Amino acid sequence: MPETDPTAPEPSSPSAPAFSSPPPSAPVPSSPSAPVPSSAPSASVAAAPYPFEFSLDDTALVIIDMQRDFVEPGGFGESLGNDVDQLRTVIPVLAEVLEKCRSAGLLVIHTREGHLPDLSDCPPSKLARGNPSQRIGDPSPNGRILIRGEKGHDIVPELYPIDGEPVIDKPGKGAFYATDFGSILAERGIRRLVVTGVTTEVCVHTTVREANDRGFECLVLSDCVGSYFPEFQRVGLEMIAAQGGIFGWTAPASAFLSALAGQAHTHVPGQQPLTALADPVRAG
Ligand code: C5J
Fold first, then answer.
1. Best of 80, 198, 229 to mutate for ligand 1, by most ligand atoms within 8 A of CB?
2. Alpha carbon distance 85, 159 (integer Å)
C-alpha cells in the first residue's frame, strides 16, 4: 500500500485547486508588535473575573462573522446541520451595542469568514470537514456558500458596516490569520478588543485566543456572541474568564453600555482614521 500524503487534495474533490498556505517560515503578515500601554483607562466594566478597564482611544468593537451564511437558512451554518435561529438572538442586542459604539466614536471592525472564488485559499481539509450536505463554493439560495462577493458571505443588514469601518476578510477561524487585522489594530493604537459575533466556540474563541497571545485585552460580550449549541455557549464563555481571566473577560452588553455611557471621545490630532479606511478594507 502506498503511504497517504496528508497534504494531498481529497480524492473526492479532484477539481479542488491547489491550496497555497503561507510557508511556515514566513513572517505572519498580521502579527503586530505587542500593543503598547497608553494612558490610564477611563472606563470600567463590571465583568468576570474582575472589572475590565478601557479607554475610547485604545479600544475597538470587533464584530465577528455576522454573515448571512451563518445566521440565515440555506447557508454554511445550516449545511453543517445547525439551527441558525440560535444565532439570530444576538442581532438586536448587538445592533444596540454597535449604534452606541458608533455614537461614542469607538473604532468598529467587522470580520467575514470566506474564500476566493477559485478556493485557492481554502485548505482541502476545510472543504471536506464535517461531511456537509453542501460544501464551501456550492450554490445556495444566497449564492456560492462562503465565497467572497456572494450575498450569503455578506454581513446581515442590521449590522452592516458604514464608511470608515474596516471589514476584514479572513480565510480562517481567527481574525489574525492571513489578514491585515493585526496591522490595522497596531496602526490605530488599539490594545483592547470588545469582542462580539458568531460563533462563540469557533471564530470568537479563535480570535480571542489569537489576540490574547499577541498581548491584547479582550472583553467578550456574553449576549452579543452566539453558538448553535447552548452548552458550548455557556462553557465557551466560562473558559474565557476562568483561571483569573486566562483568555480575557466576559460581561453582558448592559454592563459594557453602562461604562460606555458618558465617555466623550477625544481624538488625538493626527490620529484621525486612515484615508485608506475611507472605504471598508477588504483585507485578505
Ligand atoms: C464557523 C464561525 N463556525 N464564524 N465559523 O465555522 O464561527
1. 198
2. 17
CA separation for the pair 242, 3 (Å, rounded): 43
Question: Is residue 190 over pLDDT 60?
Answer: yes
- The number of domains in the chain is 1
Answer yes or no: is 86 within a domain: yes
H or E segment to which residue 226 belongs: strand 217-226
For the cut 90, the answer to whether the pLDDT of residue 108 exceeds it is: yes
Whichever domain contains 104, its CATH number is 3.40.50.850
Note down the domain range covering 116: 58-283
Q: Which residue's CA lies nearest to atom 6 of ligand 1? A: 202
The ligand 1 atom at the shortest distance from the C-alpha of residue 206 is 7
Q: Which residues are catalytic, by number?
A: 65, 170, 203
Residue 93 lies in a domain: yes
Instruction: Determine the distance separating the centroid of ligand 1 and the alpha carbon of 200, expressed in angstroms.
Output: 8
Q: What is the pTM of this model?
A: 0.84
β-pairing, 59-64 vs 192-198, is parallel
Tell me if 204 is assigned to some domain: yes
